[in-house]
Each structure stands twice: as structure tokens, then as C-alpha cells.
Target: Peptide deformylase
Amino acid sequence: MSIRPLVIIPDTKLRLISEPVKEITSEIRRLADDMLDTMYDAPGVGLAAIQIGVPIRMVTMDVSKSEDEHQPMVLINPEIVWASEEKRVYEEGCLSIPEYYEEVERPDRVRFRYMNLQGEMIEQDADGLLATCVQHEIDHLDGVLFIDHLSKLKRDRVMTKFKKAAKREAGA
Ligand SMILES: [Zn+2]
Model:
């Protein structure tokens, strides 16, 4: 298990459409372990594989509040199968957009389907933080970031800030 470097905007990898996982191999299991380590270390409540540079449809999440009792979830090929008409606003952040938080409106409740590491298909209902998190992470698999749900003005401002920072780093 190891902590992997996070992919940060404006890295264009974050815009890739991730490929479905065809088979749960030892490599996939290892990747899931690394993703969980990386996510807990950050710390964050969710991580998509592309955020450590691997364009496959796998997500790790842990929305439990407790520090001592981790409730890790590994979602393989997750998809939203139903979303409520009612919306909800929640302040989101992203490990690929460090220290930036903004309110995002999304469906209040969703039903999602995924395969776990044992190869079982699971369908689950979510509300609250879990609903927000699963929608945010599945967006990543399609190259979508939470800032895409904001106004163009806000999005441009964030992108400009991170582009400048990346340039400074490259020049240093
Ligand atoms: Zn994110």
C-alpha cells in the first residue's frame, strides 16, 4: 500500500473519460488499497482513480464521520440509476482542486449501482453527504469537475488561479 501523488488542475488528465474495469485482478485490488491510503492521507471523503492518474472507472469513498472507525467503500464501474427531482445545495471541495470550496446544487437523493471488490453487484440509495459524494466522484469518471457546475465566471477564476500556480511551479 502506498500514497500516490494527486493529479491537480489544470492537468488535462482530469478531463479524460475513464474506461470500465473488465476484471478484478490483483492489480485492481492493489490500486484500490493505494487509493484508500491516498484518500485517508489527504484527507478526503472520496477519490476517483483518475485523480492519481489512472483512467479507470473506480472510486473510493468514506463518508463516516469517525476518525477511528473507517468505513471504506470501493466502487467499481459505479453509475447513478435514479436521481430525485428535488435538489440540494452542499459545499464541495476536491482533492484535485486544493483549498477551494464552493456550493454546488445537485439532486438531493440518488440510487447508484456498482460492483464491489468481491465482484458483487450492489444497488444502494443515498442522501446527504453520500449522495453528494457519489455524484461528485462519478462525475470524475466522465472528466467532469465540480467547478463545471458553477458559473463560468467562478470556474474561469479558479482555473486562472491554478494555471498561474502551475506556471510558477514549472518556472521554479
Ligand atoms: Zn473531486
